[in-house]
C-alpha cells in the first residue's frame, strides 16, 4: 500500500501503482493541511474577496468578476470548455499515472480543494476506472489543461472511461458501481487542470522504459561483438577510468562481465587493431545516455511531488499567490533530452546491424542468409531499422524550442512539454524495435559462429532469444519475429536472467 503525502512519491512507488496496480491511500497528517487550505477558500467565497480562479474568469478573462452564487457553475464550465483534446486516447497507464500524480500534488495542501476531491481521484485509481484522455491539445502551460480536463470529466460523471477493458460512458460505470459523481466547488475545477501531470505521467512511464532499454542494449551489443569478433581491449577499465565518466565506466564493466570467457571476441592485433566506432565506442555512447537518464529521473522525481497549481495558498489562507508553477519548461527540456539520448541508442544499434548484415564489413554470409541471392535473409531488417532511426531524428527535434501565444496573448510563452514527452515515448518505442532487430541479427551471427563458443551470459541470452525467434533458415515473414522480440524486450527487465547490469 502506497501512502500519498504530497512530498514522498518515488519512481519505484510510481511504478508499483501505475504498472502493478498497487493500492493507494492518503496520509492523515497531510490531509490536515488540505482541510486548512480548503477552509481558507470557503472564507474567501463567503467574504467576497477577489481571487483568481475562485471568483474570476480565467486567462485573459481573469479581470471578469464572478458572483458568489455562480462560483460552482464557473468550475463546471471550466472543465467543459477546456475538454477539447483530439487524437487517439492516451494509454490506460498514462491515465492511471495522471490520477496518481494529480492526487499527490493536491495532497501538498496548497490548492484549496476539499478532501472528497482527492478521495475521488483515488477511488478511480484504486477501482481502475480510467478516464479516456485524448493525446493531443496541450501546450504545456497553463499546465496540461485539455488532458487534465478530460480526466476531470470522469470525476464529475461526464465523458468516457475505460473500465473492465471496455470504453464506456462514465455515468454508466458509476451507476453500475453505485458511486456518486463529484460536484465541484469553488476553485476545484481549476485545481484539477492547472498542472503538468500529463507530461509528467507520460514522461515517467517513458523513463521507466528507457531505463530498461539502457540495460538491454548492453546485453544485445555484447552478443553483436561476438558475432563480429570484436576487439575486447576497447573495454579495458584503464581506458574508461582515464576519461572519468562513471556511466561509461559502468557500461565498459558490463560488457567485460557479459563477455567473460567468450572464445568469439578477439584481442587487439589478432584480427584487426581496432573496431569501427559502433563497436569500439559502445561505453561512450551507451554511458552518455545513462547520464541523461539520471538527469531526467531527478527532474521527474521533483515534478511528481511538486505544487503546480495556480494560485497557491500559504499560511492558512493569509497569503494567496498567483504564479507560474504550471509552466512545463523543466519537464519539456528533460523530455527533449530523453528523446535525443534514446535516439542515440537506436542510431548506434542500427550501425551495428549494418555491420552484421553487410558482407563488405564482415566475414559472415551476405545478409546472414542461408542461401545468399536466392534468399535475402536479414537484408530488409536493416532497412526497417534505418527507417525507424530516420523517424527518430525527426521526432528528436526539440519541442521545447517552440512556443505560441494563447489566451489573447496573456499566456504568451508555453513549454510544449507534453509534445516533448509524447515524442520521447515514440522514440523509445522505435528504439525497442531497432534493438529487437539487432538481437535477431546477433543471434543469427552467433548461430554461424558457434553458440558453444559464446560467453556464459550472452549464451543465456541467445538461448532465451531462440525460444522466442527461431533461426532464419529460409526466408519468412520477419515482421512477426520483430513483434515477438519487441514484446519480450518490453516485458522483461534484463534480458537473459535476473542479473542486473
From TrEMBL:
UniProt key word Cytoplasm: yes
Residue(s) of cross-link: 5-imidazolinone (Ala-Gly): 141-143
Top EC group: lyase
Keywords, in A-Z order: Cytoplasm, Histidine metabolism, Lyase
Gene3D superfamilies reported in the protein's UniProt record: Fumarase/aspartase (Central domain) (1.20.200.10), Fumarase/aspartase (N-terminal domain) (1.10.275.10)
GO BP, sorted A to Z: L-histidine catabolic process to glutamate and formamide; L-histidine catabolic process to glutamate and formate
2,3-didehydroalanine (Ser): residues bearing it: 142
One GO CC term, this protein: cytoplasm
CDD domains: PAL-HAL
Recorded GO MF terms: histidine ammonia-lyase activity
Protein name: Histidine ammonia-lyase
Organism of origin: Evansella caseinilytica
Gene name for this UniProt entry: hutH
Amino acid at each position: 500500500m502506497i501512502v500519498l503525502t504530497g512530498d514522498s512519491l518515488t519512481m519505484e512507488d510510481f511504478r508499483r501503482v501505475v504498472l502493478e496496480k498497487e493500492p493507494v491511500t492518503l496520509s492523515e497528517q497531510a490531509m490536515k493541511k488540505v482541510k486548512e487550505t480548503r477552509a481558507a477558500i470557503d472564507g474567501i467565497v463567503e467574504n467576497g474577496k477577489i481571487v483568481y480562479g475562485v471568483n474570476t474568469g480565467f486567462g485573459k478573462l481573469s479581470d471578469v468578476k464572478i458572483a458568489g452564487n455562480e462560483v460552482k457553475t464557473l468550475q463546471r464550465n471550466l472543465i467543459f470548455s477546456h475538454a477539447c483534446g483530439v487524437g487517439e486516447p492516451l494509454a490506460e497507464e498514462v491515465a492511471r499515472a495522471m490520477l496518481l500524480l494529480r492526487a499527490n500534488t493536491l495532497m501538498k495542501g496548497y490548492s484549496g480543494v476539499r478532501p472528497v476531491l482527492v478521495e475521488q481521484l483515488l477511488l478511480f485509481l484504486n477501482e481502475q476506472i480510467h478516464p479516456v484522455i485524448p493525446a493531443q491539445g496541450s501546450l504545456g502551460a497553463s499546465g496540461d489543461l485539455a488532458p487534465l480536463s478530460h480526466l476531470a470529466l470522469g470525476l464529475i460523471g461526464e465523458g468516457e472511461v475505460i473500465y473492465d477493458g471496455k470504453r464506456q460512458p462514465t455515468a454508466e460505470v458509476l451507476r453500475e458501481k453505485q458511486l456518486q459523481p463529484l460536484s465541484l466547488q469553488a476553485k476545484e475545477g481549476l485545481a484539477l487542470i492547472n498542472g503538468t501531470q500529463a507530461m509528467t505521467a507520460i514522461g515517467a512511464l517513458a523513463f521507466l522504459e528507457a531505463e530498461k532499454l539502457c540495460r538491454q542494449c548492453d546485453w544485445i551489443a555484447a552478443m553483436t561483438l561476438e558475432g563480429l569478433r570484436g576487439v575486447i581491449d576497447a573495454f579495458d577499465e584503464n581506458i574508461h577510468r582515464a576519461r572519468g565518466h562513471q556511466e561509461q565506466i559502468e557500461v565498459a564493466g558490463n560488457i567485460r562481465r557479459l563477455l567473460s570467457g567468450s572464445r568469439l571476441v578477439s584481442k587487439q592485433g589478432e584480427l584487426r587493431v581496432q573496431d569501427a566506432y559502433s563497436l569500439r565506442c559502445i561505453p561512450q555512447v551507451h554511458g552518455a545516455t545513462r547520464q541523461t537518464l539520471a538527469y531526467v529521473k531527478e527532474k521527474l522525481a521533483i515534478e511528481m511531488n511538486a505544487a503546480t497549481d495556480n494560485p497557491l495558498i500559504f499560511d492558512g489562507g493569509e497569503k494567496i499567490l498567483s504564479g507560474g508553477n504550471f509552466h512545463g519548461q523543466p519537464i519539456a527540456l528533460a523530455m527533449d533530452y530523453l528523446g535525443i539520448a534514446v535516439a542515440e541508442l537506436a542510431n548506434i544499434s542500427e550501425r551495428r546491424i549494418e555491420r552484421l548484415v553487410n558482407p563488405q564489413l564482415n566475414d559472415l554470409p551476405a545478409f546472414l542468409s542461408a542461401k545468399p541471392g536466392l534468399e535475402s535473409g536479414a537484408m530488409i531488417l536493416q532497412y526497417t531499422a534505418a527507417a525507424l532511426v530516420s523517424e527518430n531524428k525527426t521526432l528528436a527535434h526539440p519541442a521545447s524550442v517552440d512556443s505560441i501565444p494563447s489566451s489573447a496573448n496573456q499566456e504568451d510563452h508555453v513549454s510544449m512539454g507534453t509534445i516533448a514527452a509524447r515524442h520521447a515515448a515514440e522514440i523509445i518505442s522505435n528504439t525497442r524495435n531497432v534493438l529487437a532487430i539487432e538481437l535477431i541479427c546477433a543471434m543469427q551471427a552467433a548461430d554461424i559462429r558457434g553458440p558453444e563458443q559464446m560467453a556464459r551470459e550472452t549464451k543465456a541470452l541467445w538461448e532465451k532469444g531462440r525460444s522466442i525467434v527461431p533461426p532464419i533458415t529460409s526466408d519468412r515473414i520477419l515482421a512477426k519475429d520483430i513483434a515477438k522480440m519487441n514484446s519480450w524486450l518490453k516485458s522483461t527487465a534484463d534480458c537473459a536472467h535476473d542479473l542486473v547490469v
